[in-house]
Amino acid sequence: MNAVAMASGQDGPATLAERLFGARSARAYAVADGAARSDLREMLWRTEARNECLFLGELEPEVAACAPYLVALDGPDGAFAELAAGWGGGQTIYLTSRAELLELRRHLRPLTRAVLPGGQVVGFRFYDPRVLQVVLPVMDSIQRAEIFGAAVESFFCEDEDGIGLLCFERDG
Questions:
Q1: From CA 162, how far away is CA 51, in angstroms rounded?
Q2: Distance between CA 25 and CA 111 in Å, rounded?
Q3: How many other C-beta atoms are found inside a 10 Å radius of the C-beta of residue 72?
Q4: Taking a C-beta distance cutoff of 8 angstroms, is the pair 16, 94 a contact?
Q5: pLDDT for the residue numbered 12
Q6: What stretches of the chain adopt beta strand conformation (E)?
Q7: Rg of the chain over CA atoms, in angstroms?
Q8: What is the pLDDT of residues 41-84, one digit of tens each?
């Protein structure tokens, strides 16, 4: 896996915007954590951002408010600007993909669950930057192939200090 620490100690959101929207060969997305951002659903409604919940089925309002949402980012304004304002707070990861929104949701939904060695199924908060920055570097090639799949080209998240930008790219 290519893992590149970028802009450490600098303005992570500005560098992220350059990476997501600079040379637009891929679509830009975010996965925002409703449990980390209480106003997420209202912000998505206000910005009219195209989004899909990563939890399956009809959700109780309390669960829907805390769920992760895949958000299509159309540029450095609107939803991106509002999500990036929470930089350093463990609220959002970003990614690039050539997939359409619903295709990407199909890939990411199963990743919200993990199977432990004993067979127990547990929630997997890959969309939490503090989780992503720890697990991606230690995954083996099979696990990385599963999380990136054919859909994800790059994952981006804040670094451990919540300032700089980490970029994880698909193998090959």
A1: 25
A2: 25
A3: 16
A4: yes
A5: 82
A6: 2-6, 27-33, 51-53, 68-73, 92-97, 113-115, 121-123, 152-158, 165-169
A7: 15
A8: 999 999 999 999 999 999 999 999 999 999 999 989 999 999 99
